[in-house]
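Blackboard transcription, Thursday session:
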Amino acid sequence: GAVVSQHPSWVICKSGTSVKIECRSLDFQATTMFWYRQFPKQSLMLMATSNEGSKATYEQGVEKDKFLINHASLTLSTLTVTSAHPEDSSFYICSARVRGLDSSYNEQFFGPGTRLTVL
Amino acid sequence: TQLLEQSPQFLSIQEGENLTVYCNSSSVFSSLQWYRQEPGEGPVLLVTVVTGGEVKKLKRLTFQFGDARKDSSLHITAAQPGDTGLYLCAGALGNKLVFGAGTILRVKS
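(Written on the board underneath:)
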């Protein structure tokens, strides 16, 4: 399958600072990437859809000014958590959309995740 | 209310037992994917089912897509401790994936 990387894998920061997380598609180009948030032992919650060359589309309840997304190239999307607070501590996962073999469907391949802890 | 209902939420079984995880929805999906996730890692794609009624096998895992493309099941035969993890179903609606709540599977040796 397609390989997606994330950096950093974990980060600890002080309250009020900003943190940038990178998501890269390593062996393919991804016009669409997705950012998810996951709490312990729970499923993934979609935060936003990142589109190369255009503004991200945010899910209801997700603050776009708090979670800045930039998809500057076909292989890189970044998520910046601005003015982080302890309640932003979570596991953030990105995915990249890949067209299926016969183009009739799309699959998403996920990065390894980034554990953010805000003190 | 979850758009994609996944059950059971938790499953603790002995090595060698069989199990089935179900995902049900009132929505029709263009495809449905099953993922397995281990703690601290991202989900890993196991299979994608596309056609109504489709059955796919991956070693001891059997995946089925309902005829109406609204539901799916994952059956594991002779479970092993290495099967332990979080199993997630995800239905494709447009460009997005709708995830089930997940099934935490623990296989005891």
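Lecturer's comment: Chain B touches chain A at residues 30-31, 33, 35, 40-45, 48, 50, 86, 88, 90, 92, 95-97, 99-102, 104 (CB under 8 Å).
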